[in-house]
Amino acid sequence: MPFYRCLIPKGSLNYDQRSEIATAFTDVHCGISAAPRNFVHVAFLEVEEGSPVSDTHGTGVLKYDTPFFIAGGNRAGRPPEVRAQILDGLINRFSEIVSVPRSDVSGHISEAPASWTMEDGEILPEPGEEPAEWYVHDAVAD
Question: What φ, ψ does residue 128 adopt, rounded to 5°?
Fold first, then answer.
């Protein structure tokens, strides 16, 4: 369910950087939250400087004052410190991969109740209440 939209200047990231960021975001999110890896989604939106971007709820416009912005959406239920840790990890990895100062990247994680979201045709449980079979994709073959 985690959905991270990376707002980036047009032409600023190549395919390899995007792929590396998507993998890094999955590592950060799952390493902190223990969510199944196949739940994490990352999208890249190329924007013109100063162009308005609709927020994830369709009720307004995202406001940010950095060249790069991470707009995250997660299930509600985790403590604010965990959300802050996830966002900090995402921003750090993004700035490392893109080779830009951390001050050029900002972000926000909004939340919605788990019951508002489906993944693979299932209404999501609260964080930490996922059945074990959801982690089968994460198992490493011997």
Answer: 90, -10
Fold for the domain defined by 3-127: Macrophage Migration Inhibitory Factor (3.30.429)
The helix/strand/coil state of 43 is strand
- What backbone torsions phi and psi does residue 76 show, to the nearest 5 degrees? -70, 155
Alpha helices in 1-142 (DSSP H): 15-33, 80-98
SS3 for 84-112 is HHHHHHHHHHHHHHHCCCHHHEEEEEEEE
Per the structure block, which two tokens stand in for 24? 């890094």
The per-residue pLDDT for range 86-122, each reduced to its tens digit, is 999 999 999 999 999 999 999 999 888 888 888 778 8
> How far, in Å, CA of 26 to CA of 127, rounded?
16
Q: Which residue has the higher pLDDT, 112 or 52?
A: 112
